[in-house]
Amino acid sequence: MALPGVKAATTGADLRGQKYGPFRSRRDETGLARDKVRYIGDPVAALAAVDEETALEAIELIKIEYEELPAVFDAEEAMQEGAPLIHEEYERNICAYRNFNFGDVEEGFNSSFHVREDHFFSQGLSHAVLEPRAALAHSDSSGKLTLWTGTQSPYGVRQDLSLALGLPASKIRVIKPFVGGGFGGKGDLMPHEVAASLLAMKARQPVKISLTREEEISITRLRNPMSISVKTGVSKEGVILAQYVKCVANGGAYASTSVMLTYNSGLTCLIPYRISNFKYDGYMIYTNRAVSGAMRGHGANQPRFAVECQLDMIAEDIGMDPAELRLRNATQKGDTSINGLVFNSCELSRAIQEVTKVSGWEEKRGRKDINRGIGIACGGFVCGARGGSHTASACFIQVNEEGGVVLSTGSSDIGQGSETTLAQIVAEELGLSPSDVTVISGDTETTPIDPGTFSSRVTFYAGNAALQAAREVKRSLAEMAAKFMEATAEDIEFRDHKVFVKYAPDKTIAFKNLAQMAISFGQGRSIIGKGQWAPQNTQFPDKITRYGNVSGAYSFAAQVAEVEVDTETGEVKLIKVTIADDCGRVINILGAEGQAEGSVSMGQGHALLENILFGDRGQIMNPSFLEYKIPTALDMADVSFLEVGSPDPLGPYGAKEIGEGLIISTVPAIINAIYDAVGVRVTELPARPEKILEGLRKR
Length: 699
Fold this sequence. Notes:
Helix content: 25-40%
Strand content: 15-25%
CATH topology of the largest domain: Aldehyde Oxidoreductase, domain 4
Number of helices: 17
Number of domains: 3
Structural class: alpha+beta
CATH class of the largest domain: Alpha Beta
Shape: globular
Radius of gyration: 27 Å
């Protein structure tokens, strides 16, 4: 503080509030360490200065005394009796445990024609967002704190910031500006947001903290490294009779979304296929590594990789085509799974048939002479899982005097294009163009409460809320138009920026003129609509049995990947990915295609390139894009996107999710294609060249 230019400094001692975290039962973070640091990167102090150079000089003046404690970095070791405890209240470092047990699994195995058991491992990944996190905080003279931050959940950040600082939520405003990518990682309250807020309150001046790329990778969130064991029994015809899945995830130093991860890993195993007997054990383990949290397809990607690869292995064991095996087990419309998931719409069988036809599956499979291979995988995902707290989305719509429409939503566009989709929904209902609709989103002071952007919920939830609000506006305007045009409100139609009388097209008013007349008529009136929506067919899963329909709808997809393997170098080139996706009725085709291409790119990185490397003391060894390899445009495969869905009865205009459901089948499709090309089965990701060469050497 004595250094000229330093305006404020803070440590965990200044935090007067409670611990926080995304789930009430696992609140274990403080923002700045109070008692001990649990991983390399755990923040202990922060300061604000007039410029970056002064701040960096001041940081060097901070002296910290550490008492070194025993540490543990491997999840399996951390579970052993006597291992160092990262959080003393959690025995054997088990942060979260979820289990399913439906049907009679042992009887299913006993009656199976063929039973196979295999072990797989999926590595830790960075979200690799192009824009590292940044936060700007300002505390005014009244004590009101405003935080601008690139978040997926403004209301979630406000709630946890209220806990951390001991401030009422009404004294905190969180504003989401444009976000340079999130992919699940920008949902939690992060230490730099807490630090910026504390410093702004102390300095009484705005304080901005921007993370470096090294910090972005090292101290925010990762995809969980996970070991997966799968045991599956099938009949002679390839019907799955029993399955047991065990997942052990390395969660790092704090809980983050551990409760959801351990549940999702089991839940999503029961979406794409009919399984009559199923058992699951899922563990999330504390270690002294960097924190793992939500990432696109949260909890589903790792077990889907394991299950889909094992299905190919089983198909080979019993002499069956892998696509045919999947067809025989595919979930069907009208099914209810053994854990209570209700599938009111499902076109997975059609997806498998179309994707194999378009990709040339029968002609290309098994051609090892040219070192090219083709692989298939399927998956399914929720359209917004039912949460234990506030789960609905809400929207407000106001029509201005000149006919412009303003939509206010608490949901957050983080680059996935949800604001465009919501504008399209409102424009479609009111007979306007999307450009006539202004979307205001992600501000806890001016937009309705919303849980955030996660679990592929925005189009399904906020889309329905926007549709409700638009229909309320439409009713109000139709009543007014009926008076002017001597008709009934039921006979009024909205189309092409005009309002018509049904069966009398000569009776018409421009939308903007009707809006002006309605607002100016008599005493004048505001044209406002509101919508609040959550599916009514869902239940929070039973705490003991885990039975319950947790989502209003489910997406389904089948993917075929084609690869070429260089047997001299071990390099794998992804040539083409064909996707058949049941995402209901597509609202924005360019957006849907963009989601498909993004899923392929992320899945390609997961399968072939990306890997967080940890040192012997838990430090991340490759926290930059120089060492952490992600696919670029030069690596991108040709992507063919096929719409195979039918309108879902609950989705807005029949739409379902497409943000996360696609990525979970990309990885196993690629790995299965590698095996088809050169006969090397990769069970530990990523499929780096040295692993391919080692597999070829063993063959």
